[in-house]
Structure formats: structure tokens, C-alpha cells
Amino acid sequence: MPELPEVETIVQGLKEKIAGQRISRVTLNLPKIVRSDLKEFLSSLPGQVIERVWRRGKFIIIDLSRDHSLIVPFLFSGLI
């Protein structure tokens, strides 16, 4: 699992690359990680704008338009 400075570096890089971008399509490789209705989740993301990227501890939080957020945990290997 990455340390906080590494997580912060990743968050800063994501801010530069994806903040303000519109989601055009969604590909989900591990559907079991979605903790809400899968169909609703997949249909709600396209068209939303990434408004803010930040972290809370070792979680990356991506705030979207329409009052949605994606919470991205790091796996033990450091993968997201």
C-alpha cells in the first residue's frame, strides 16, 4: 500500500490531467466493487464533469457534477 506522500503525488497528477474533463464512457473491469445499483452507476457517469480531485487519507475522491463522487481505494499492492 502506498504511503501518504505517494498518494498525494498521484492526486496532484490526476488534478492536472482530469479536472474539468467530461466523462464520455465507462468501462468497469470489477463490477463487484460497486456498492450501489450497477446499472444506475454505469448510466449515471457518462456526461458528468470531474469537478475536483482530492484525497482523504489514502482514498482518492473524485467529485463529479450532479452531486456524485467516486471514492477510489488503493489495493495492498498500490494499484487502484
TrEMBL record:
Gene3D superfamilies: MutM-like, N-terminal (3.20.190.10). It comes from the Bacteria. PROSITE patterns: FPG_CAT (PS51068). Residues 2-80 form the Formamidopyrimidine-DNA glycosylase catalytic domain. GO terms for biological process: base-excision repair. One of its GO terms (molecular function) is zinc ion binding. This is Formamidopyrimidine-DNA glycosylase. It comes from Candidatus Hakubella thermalkaliphila.
